[in-house]
Design a protein that fits this description.
Layout lengths: L16 E9 L6 H12 L9 H27 L6 H17 L5 E9 L4 H10 L4 E6 L9 H12 L7 E4 L7 H18 L3 E7 L3 H5 L4 H15 L7 E6 L12 H10 L4 E5 L8 H17 L4 E4 L7 H13 L9
Parallel strand pairs: 1-2, 1-3, 3-4, 5-6, 5-7, 7-8
Helix pairs in contact: 1-2, 3-11, 6-8, 6-11
Length: 340
């Protein structure tokens, strides 16, 4: 019995470099069963919920996974497409576009993995192993580092790589929150929205994390603030022309504030009737951007007296996003062909 696995000696010619794009994950279907499996894997990760297992697991495997999947299924059903979950659809398209940008897969091979769900980390990494990669560059699709996201990618990566017979040269990109090409792509997306819908107060809504994670050393908040400063400077905004806030909190723990919905209501109270929402911490569209912001937050803002709510989609598989990630990879030592 072999303890470690390696690529077959009869594989096709090796790819010199493997690029692994990693996103969070998604249920395989918008129904309670697949959502329960996905949430169990996601919320059962100690990186995501840093709580005492004796306290957390009875809650998770009791009331949370009993009742939450049914409620969440209705939200997923509202955004599900003919191709599947938006997060997976856009992530796949992005990976395909990155492969086209980087050229021949026998030189640079791109694979997509999800930390939770499919395509799984083991599946993607073994495809790269079979391709004979000697250098592996891992790019989590989280511009700002958090232990609950990027850290979880590292855990899954290390778990799989420890079974490789020949461990590749490894470059792990922990964040790209201040990469000039990323900031430029975000700024271009906001300007394009303003060209179509008119300029309005910019709300930068980022995924939240519990305050205690920051207090224990997580750099996420500082990196979000750096992204905010660079983006608003690129757009030439004065302090009263934008708001930074956080969304997607879960449970009774105190999360980073101000909360997006609270800030939107404050803006209406201050006489701001038109807003543009951008979500810099999300690489592609997902439940949190499409439903939470695009439907629920929009409804709250308009019901409170707002008039215009413009949502800027994440960068998704846009040319600007592909070029930004190509620049990040070039900074990590990947030989990126000149743009055609």
């Amino acid at each position: 019995m072999a303890w470690f696995h390696g690529a077959s000696q009869s594989t096709t010619p090796s790819s010199a470099t493997g690029v692994l794009l990693v996103n969070l994950g998604t249920p395989t279907a918008p129904t309670a069963g697949p959502i329960r499996r996905y949430l169990g894997q996601f919320l059962g990760d100690r990186r995501v919920v840093e709580a005492c297992p004796a306290y957390w697991y009875p809650l998770l495997y009791g009331p949370i996974l009993t009742f939450r999947p049914r409620r969440t299924a209705k939200l997923y059903q509202a955004i599900w497409t003919d191709e599947g979950s938006p997060l997976l659809v856009h992530s796949r398209r992005l990976a395909t576009a990155m492969q086209a940008r980087l050229g021949n897969p026998e030189s640079i091979r791109v694979e997509l993995a999800m930390t939770y769900g499919e395509p799984s980390m083991p599946e993607a990494i073994r495809k790269l192993q079979e391709a004979g990669v000697k250098k592996l560059v891992v790019l989590p699709l989280y511009p700002q580092y958090s232990g609950s996201t990027t850290g979880a990618v590292w855990d899954a990566l290390a778990k799989e790589l420890r079974m490789w017979r020949r461990v590749p040269e490894l470059h792990f990109i922990a964040d790209y929150h201040d990469a000039p090409a990323y900031i430029a792509a975000l700024a271009a997306s906001v300007r394009a929205a303003w060209d179509r819908h008119g300029r309005s107060h910019l709300v930068l809504s980022n995924h939240g994390i519990p305050v205690k994670y920051v207090e224990l050393g997580d750099p996420y908040q500082a990196q979000v603030e750096r992204t905010t400063a660079l983006l608003t400077a690129a757009l030439g905004l004065a302090p009263d022309e934008y708001s930074g806030c956080f969304q997607s909190r879960f449970g009774p723990t105190i999360w980073l504030q101000p909360y997006t919905d609270d800030r939107l209501l404050e803006l209406v109270g201050q006489g701001v009737k038109a807003v543009t929402i951008v979500t810099p911490s999300f690489a592609v569209d997902c439940l949190e951007t499409i439903e939470e912001i695009g439907v629920a937050s929009r409804a709250k803002f308009l019901a409170a007296g707002g008039d215009t709510f413009t949502l800027v989609s994440p960068l998704n598989e846009s040319d600007g996003h592909v070029e930004a990630l190509a620049a990040v990879l070039a900074g990590a030592g990947v030989t990126v062909p000149a743009r055609p």
